Amino acid sequence: MSQDSRAFRDALGHFATGVAVVTVRDPSGAPLGLTINSFASVSLNPPLVLWSLDRASDRFEAFMKAEYFGVNILGGESQALSHRLSRKGDSCLDGETLRRGPHGVPMLECAIAHFECRVEQRHDGGDHVIFVGRVLDCGHSGHGAPLVYYRGRYRALGEAD
Known about the structure:
The protein has helices at 3-12, 60-65, 79-85, and strands at 17-18, 20-25, 31-36, 40-43, 48-54, 68-73, 98-100, 106-108, 113-125, 128-140, 148-150, 153-155. It is mainly beta. The chain has one domain (17-152): Roll (Pnp Oxidase, Chain A). The strands form 3 sheets. It has a 7-stranded antiparallel beta sheet with strand order 3-2-6-9-10-5-4. Strands 1-11-12 form a 3-stranded antiparallel beta sheet, with no helix packed on it. The termini are far apart.
């Protein structure tokens, strides 16, 4: 990474983000997940969200072939899961409590909010592909503080005055 790229990345790190796991079924039907912090809402009508996937990801092919995906917003107690699914070679959801969304997407029971989506569009985004998903189903647990990522570390969310 060049000095300018490092400065860009460091500056981006000053924007606190929530942490989510995107889930799909791979071509064989096995559930897999990937930690992201690039999640955002796009539109309320129709309900659209977006996230971006690194072209160098070892899960790139599975996500590019998937017609549906889930976005699982993580709570503070899911830091270990987030860390594990952020590393190459560790996309398996074995040992996690899953439920099957209405469209067959594996969804994490531990998520404090979830969105089951159909791929609406994929856009070129440099070294990433930007996924726009139409939200088909969503919900939240109504409790739990979100897992937050800021300046290269997981953080706790506190109330502002």
